Amino acid sequence: MTEQNDQSPEGLKGSGEKIWGATRKTFHSATFRANQYKKIVQKKIDLASIHKKISSFHADLGKLIDDRRQEGETDILTNEDVQLLFRKLDSLKQSAATLEEEIENIRSETPPEEEEGKPSGDSSE
Asked: Is residue 21 included in any domain, yes or no?
């Protein structure tokens, strides 16, 4: 008798809705993780670019300090050009720290739970 109830239109409809709900939830989770991964990769690319700039500024700073030393300058660290490079380095390091923090925030995000009865097409993105 229970087999007949499972084969009734209401039983199939309930089973189909459960399958559809699980499929939507899985799809939602997969797309969320894919978008999360995409954001992290882009932030890491930006971070690598900033690290390259920092390395370049370190080389420029070293050359500038050596040039000033060879010119006989005694107080090299107060030189305007040296201070400018220090400010640029500080700015780049701050940008790198911000990006690293954003990467961690993205990694810690969890997919938002879908509201019951909310159509999946009503996304504000």
From this structure: yes
